Amino acid sequence: MNLFDIFGKLEKVDPELGERVSFNRRKMFGQLTSLAVSAVPVAAATLLTKSYAGPKDAITDVLNYALTLEYLENKFYATALASTVIPAADKAVFTQIGKHEQQHVAFLKGALAANAAAEPTFDFTAKGTFKDVFTNYQTFLALSQAFEDTGVRAYKGQATALMADDALLTYALQIHAVEARHASVVRRLRGQKGWITNNDGGGTPAAIYSGEDNVMQGTVDITMLELMAGTKISKNAATEAFDEPLSMEQVLPVAKLFIV
After folding, report:
1. How far is 230 from 213, CA to CA, in rounded Å?
2. Directed axis angle between helix 57-81 and helix 137-157, to 10°?
3. Domains assigned to the chain
4. Which pTM value belongs to this model?
5. Pairing mode, if any, of strands 220-221 and 216-217?
6. Pfam families from the xrefs (predicted)?
């Protein structure tokens, strides 16, 4: 199964999924703090087996979607760390980020066991568009920001699909928060703010920031609110204060750039 199959099947997640397994999975996640990190994938795989005596397609597709995104980031940082592109002053930052991605992959592969999707072949040059990604630090940083910001918005975009299962939603939000921290530190290393202003991607693929210039939250135009008498909120401030989700249809063209 590849990333594009997973995107399509995620739309068909069984709404009764959470009712069948939420108790067992809540119990497992409640016990994780007492487990060694190396035991977590084994525990998750055991949980998946016990919770799904019948067809596992829905949960498998959700976890494989997350796994494929983590494969991409894990391979990207592993390749960079094995090269000389990252200067010594910043190597510790990306070493730690790389460890986070390794743990995400290990957890998801352990949970999926034999059902884990194979790792795709990646082309981080995007067919030559970013041909110096592992020799030019600024290009590497731009793609790092692109992947992290995509991850943040992609996980957010699936929140409503996971609401039927509180344990799975919790896990997705935990990853989402870490991706946001990664994105912020990378943006700072690029000399940018830690948050997104309008839809400025700073030289990264434009599709990643589609919709980030939105100023409407609910039915309220944030720029029409007043900070104090006679002082309106600027568009920059309004867009910075709210991060927008990306749908699977929006993520797919971005992913296609880097998957062979």
Report:
1. 23
2. 170
3. 3-195+243-256 (1.20.1260)
4. 0.76
5. antiparallel
6. Ferritin_2
